[in-house]
């Protein structure tokens, strides 16, 4: 994501240097990764699968998918050099590239039409123009490739704004974005009710205090209390309903449309 599509205060190297461990421990991230992996295990269980993680962060998604689909090939593209370096250490057999989709370098050219399946998880809320971003990702997907997108729904917290969220989505709004970017919508879901919503409400209630804690380094997933709370929510997330109108985690599955 370049300055043309994200605010200039978005520093993803600093983000991953600061939040890498907390993100790995985050029960919401684990919930999303399990949802994505359950889908991919069903639709891409073969050696021919080429799976692209668009906005691969620090590689946690690819690490999980590689364990479940060891015969598939994986590539992650990520704006942050720090994120890519962490990812390479986690999954040495996967390909990770530092890439700005709006200014792609020559190293991306060999991967035109490469991906049979793609994931774009918790990325579009950070982008000023999600439609343009997805259009820029399209060339790296094979004809008919399927993509799962996850984005936050529900109200925005002070911490969300602190880490650069521009907007949150509904099932209808993410479907419009994907359609405008040239994808055919297959299904949309609102997942996570009721306990993911409760988790989000705790973050919202914490407000600016959570931002202050993180800025001061007093909480980044390291404290005993924070780890205990995360374990409690990981347990509770097992009892979330699969898809309701009320879940604050929004998921869409789409297919690259014919030209």
Automatic annotation (TrEMBL):
Taxon lineage: Bacteria, Pseudomonadati, Verrucomicrobiota, Spartobacteria, Chthoniobacterales
MF (Gene Ontology): methyltransferase activity
Pfam families for the chain: Methyltransf_23 (PF13489)
Keyword terms: Methyltransferase, Transferase
Gene3D superfamilies: Vaccinia Virus protein VP39
GO term, biological process aspect, one: methylation
Protein's recorded name: Methyltransferase type 12
Family annotation (InterPro entries): SAM-dependent_MTases_sf (IPR029063)
């Amino acid at each position: 994501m370049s300055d043309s599509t994200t605010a200039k205060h978005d520093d993803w190297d600093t983000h991953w240097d600061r939040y890498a461990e907390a993100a790995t421990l985050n029960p919401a991230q684990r919930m999303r990764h399990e949802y994505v992996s359950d889908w991919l295990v069903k639709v891409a269980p073969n050696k021919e699968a080429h799976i692209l993680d668009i906005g691969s962060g620090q590689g946690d998604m690819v690490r999980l998918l590689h364990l479940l689909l060891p015969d598939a090939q994986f590539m992650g593209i990520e704006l942050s050099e720090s994120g890519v370096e962490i990812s390479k250490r986690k999954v040495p057999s996967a390909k990770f590239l530092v890439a700005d989709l709006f200014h792609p370098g020559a190293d991306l050219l060999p991967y035109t039409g490469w991906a049979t399946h793609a994931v774009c998880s918790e990325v579009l809320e950070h982008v000023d123009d999600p439609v343009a971003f997805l259009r820029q990702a399209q060339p790296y997907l094979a004809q008919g490739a399927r993509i799962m997108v996850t984005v936050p729904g529900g109200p925005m917290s002070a911490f969300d704004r602190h880490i650069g969220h521009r907007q949150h989505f509904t099932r209808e709004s993410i479907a419009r974005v994907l359609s405008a970017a040239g994808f055919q919508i297959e299904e949309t879901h609102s997942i996570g009710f009721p306990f993911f919503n409760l988790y989000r409400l705790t973050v919202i209630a914490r407000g600016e205090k959570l931002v202050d804690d993180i800025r001061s380094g007093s909480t980044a997933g390291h404290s005993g209390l924070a780890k205990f709370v995360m374990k409690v929510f990981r347990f509770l997330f097992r009892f979330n309903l699969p898809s309701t109108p009320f879940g604050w985690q929004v998921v869409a599955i789409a297919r690259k449309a014919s030209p």
